[in-house]
Amino acid sequence: MTEFQTLSGLINKYIYNNQLSVLATLRETKLMKNLYYLLLISILTLASCKTQQITTPQDQQSKLDITQMQGGMWVPSELEGMNETEMRILGSNMSASDIYDTTKPSLKDAVVHFNGGCTAEIISDQGLLLTNHHCGYGAIQSHSSTENDYLKDGYWAENKSGELPNPGMTVTFVVRMDNVTNQMFQGTKGVTNADLEKILNKNREALKKTITIERDQKVTVKSFSNGNQFYLIVTENFKDIRFVGAPPSSIGKFGADTDNWMWPRHSGDFSLFRIYADKNNNPAEYSKDNVPYKPKHFLPISLDGVETGDFTLVFGFPGRTDEYLPAVAINQIVHKLNPEKIAIRETSLAIMDKYMRKDEKIKLQYASKFAGIANYWKKWIGESQGLIQSKAVEKKRALETEFQTIVKEKGLTQYNTIFSDFNKLYEEYGEAAQARDYWVEVVYRNVELLNLTFRLYQLEQTYKNKGEKAFAKARDEFVKGKEGFYKNFNAKLDQEVFAKLMYMYDARYPKTRISEEYRVKLWNESAEKAYANTKLTSYDGLKRVLKGTGKQVFENLNKDKAYQIGSAYSEKFFKELNPNFYAVKDKLDVVQKLYSKALQEVFPNKRFFPDANSTLRVTYGQVKGYSPKDGMEYLPVSYLDGIIEKYVPGDYEFDVSQKLQDLYATKDYGQYHYNGKIPVNFIGTNHTTGGNSGSPVLDAHGNLIGLNFDRVWEGTMSDYNYDANICRNIMVDARYILFIIDKYAGASHLIDEMKLVHPKK
Ligand code: ARG
Ligand code: ASP
After folding, report:
1. Who lines ligand 1 at CB under 6 A?
2. At what angle are helices 30-50 and 82-89 packed, to 10 degrees?
């Protein structure tokens, strides 16, 4: 089936556009809003009639521009109306209350925030959880040893007693999300910004008291839309989460850094956990007496797969987007902030790479750190390119010109100075943000010894502010926590990173006027001295230097060469870089809040969603390829055949296990193939960001069809400028997950727990 044969693709563009412009004016009043939905529904009916017809080239030309309905991360408790209608036009069969309801089980009851950073979903009536391999990575690593390397070989619990506890791991359900904007703004009319915070805090506390919560539930009132909206959110935390299984990294991380943020992709990026509860099905700390959690809802899994044009819904916890920044901010990200962060990481990655290639042990020690640093390095490059190619700055400028014209016409004088304020503040912000970025990238992120000294500096503050007892406790924890750090630390490598990065830092913010040549020499010598005259490069050294009272410890430590440098830079961060940054950031936040509000008032017909803020959201779209460049077209689904094509024997990124090769050779695919091929990954127009990893991808009926894990290179700019023409999220096909669990791992007992369905048949 081609794209144009799908329901939405057949809607006549002429009708759509003409009706939309009518609709646009209609959306201004509440009554008119209802009419708007009615009209959208009539388009829907018309469209479904047209699906019966045979397509002609004319139909194709007049296809509906449904890109306008994609993009956005919507609040699940407010889907009724516009979102529900748009979803139906895109092919959904679900009502808003199928997705979110507080009076009966709904999809939201199967979606959890996984350990605060990712998303996961329940796929059996015994609390079986599915998330990404890269989200479970730390846990998998913590259960691994050289004899039992679960990262390398994978792991599959044979029964419940083989499921491994993960102290400290939590998953969080959303019990309810209520819009409390009006209540929060009560009594705030005409008050100044300073007083506003106080009133908001008072209202927040009062609101929280109106909610009776059950044991283990938590109420928060969170700001949305840059402080223009507020939601009261009740959550419930489960704490006994056990590791059930994961494929080897050669499947879970296939393609590693080379393929990261790229399409076509072939990664089996999934892992399995299970929620345990006490005998009453309530959250509880780990206990061997706990039992598998009985969920309110779990997701059936579709065996029918996807094709171009299919409706997709991604339900998860996106971390952060900044979709409403002004042009001046985007310009600054592209031309000022991203390039230097990229350059710093590039330097450090090149050094790591050099050492990793020479030494097998270093390669193991630094693989995960390398991947972590490379992840956003690569993202920023793609992001900047995408922002340039999509002309994001020019588009924002055009919008701003229109904005100013309407502001003038309507006499909305309160918005007159928004852009002059932005321009002035972003000038200051650029410098402050860049100075802070340098510190973060060099001291905090890339030079491991400096990161260590930063943590020690914080320990020194604990000692100074809270005294000996607090220090002793914090120190013991610190020492215990650092064993792993030293297992994976190579001082020679880190010294070279120090020398190069500190040179870059010093050249950018010079304290003295010296020649570049001399500056290089200076930092090489300084690195030499610092690493030769510190106890901090070995675990024994650290333990020795931290022995004794706080007074003794810091007397000694302040004579340590590396600590002297590190603590001076840490002090600089707290006394200068961070305060300077927030002095402007706080002012910018006030203007951004006003601008976000103004945008909705000035363009009442445009769709505005609140930026991601790690709360539960719904985004929807369609399975769709894209054209990365003129003359190129990407298909939306990849297959096992592509894994075999990419196979490089023994390579750390592209090796393929014998077992998978055998399954491919014998075509032992069971019920998981599509026309004799195993689908691996697919892409769609869903608007996702970091935190959406592990999110369930649902079909028109709420069945699981995939697992979100990444985005395409050309579209990573979606955090600032979602564009349905080029932004794609990348998902693991549910059938690949089932195939690996069943045929590769032989863990059919897990398949037996699940509910496999055929919605298309
Ligand atoms: N790009 C994915 C997301 O930001 C991460 C995928 C993990 N894989 C990797 N090679 N780092 O987080
Ligand atoms: N890989 C990301 C995550 O870990 C998802 C993304 O940024 O698209 O959440």
Report:
1. 134, 253, 256-257, 260-261, 371, 375, 690, 693, 710
2. 10
CB-facing half-sphere around the CA of 83: CA atoms within 13 A: 24
pLDDT at position 354 over 90 = yes
pLDDT classification of 192: cutoffs 50, 70, 90: confident
Residue whose entry in the numeric block shows the structure tokens 């500190």: 502
Task: Give the domain ranges of the chain.
Answer: 3-94, 327-596
Ligand 2 pocket mutation, candidates 375, 376, 379, 709, criterion most atoms within 8 A of CB: 709
The answer to whether 612 touches 691, Cβ cutoff 8 Å, is yes
In angstroms, rounded to a whole number, what is the distance separating the alpha carbons of residues 625 and 150? 34
Distance 382 CA to ligand 2 centre (A): 14
Residue 256 CA, closest ligand 1 atom number: 10
Q: CB within 8 A of 279, min separation 6: which ones?
A: 289, 291
What is residue 15's three-state secondary structure?
helix
Residues 6+ apart with CB under 8 A from 183: 203, 207, 230
Residue 291 has pLDDT above 90, yes or no: yes
SS (H, E, C) 69-135: HCCCCECHHHCCCHHHHHHHHCCCCCCHHHHCCCCCCCHHHHEEEECCCEEEEECCCCCEEEECHHH
Active site residues: 134, 269, 693
- The pLDDT score that the predictor gives to residue 66 is 83
- The Cα–Cα gap between 109 and 95 comes to 15
Q: What is the pLDDT of residue 19?
A: 33
Mean pLDDT of all residues belonging to the chain: 91
Mean pLDDT on 121-136? 97
How far is 682 from 706, CA to CA, in rounded Å? 8
* Ligand with minimal distance to 372 CA: 1
Q: What is the DSSP letter of 575?
A: I
Q: Is the pLDDT of residue 7 over 50?
A: no
Q: CB–CB of 394/279 below 8 Å?
A: no
